[in-house]
Design a protein that fits this description.
CATH architecture: Alpha-Beta Complex
Number of helices: 4
Strand content: 25-35%
Structural class: alpha+beta
Radius of gyration: 14 Å
Protein name: YdhG-like domain-containing protein
Distance between the termini: 34 Å
Pfam families: DUF1801
Strand order of the largest sheet: 1-2-3-4-6-5
Low-confidence stretches: none
């Protein structure tokens, strides 16, 4: 199924997974600059500022993947113990509560790294 918006992406899931996606979306949306653009890129919900990707997120069978950039993952390395990570993604397992405060801190730190005038 091809989706054309973040809302369509989230709506294709049910129950807890849908709620987890919605929570991540709302955390990003509430913190992102008003000029950030929402889209689907690489089949994932995406927030961009001008042409720079800010965040991607997606649902997988066992987790929510959150892509805040490799620099952010490196910066928060010690806070990510217990979560699966790759160079570009953090995996929040469905069988554990979403770490909302950690996600909020990651979003805020990422936005603080933007050039002046973009945050």
């Amino acid at each position: 199924m091809t989706v054309n918006s973040i809302a369509e992406y989230i709506d294709q899931y049910d129950g807890e997974v849908q709620q987890r996606l919605l929570t991540v979306y709302e955390l990003i949306r509430s913190a992102a600059p008003h000029t950030a653009v929402e889209s689907i890129s690489w089949r994932m919900p995406t927030f961009k500022l001008d042409t720079e990707p800010l965040f991607f997120f997606t649902a997988a069978k066992r987790h929510i993947s959150f892509y805040p950039t490799a620099e952010v993952i490196a910066h928060f390395d010690s806070d990510l113990d217990g979560y699966g990570t790759t160079e570009h993604a953090i995996q929040f397992p469905h069988n554990a509560p979403l770490p909302i405060e950690l996600i909020r801190q990651i979003i805020d730190w990422r936005l603080q790294q933007l050039p002046s005038g973009n945050s």
